[in-house]
Amino acid sequence: MTRRDLDLALDWAAAEGWNPGREDASCFFAADPEGFFVAEVEGRPVASISAVRMGERFGFIGLYIAIPEARGQGHGMALWRAGMAHLDGRCVGLDGVVAQQANYRKSGFVFSWNNARYEAERPLLEAAHHRADAAEFGDALLAYDALHAGEARPEFLRAWLEAPGHVARVIRGPDGALRGFGVLRPCREGAKIGPLFAEDAGHARSLLTALAAEHPDGKLVLDVAEDHAAAVALAREAGMEKVFETARMYTGAPPPMRREGVFGITSFELG
Question: Does 65 map to a domain?
Answer without folding.
Answer: yes
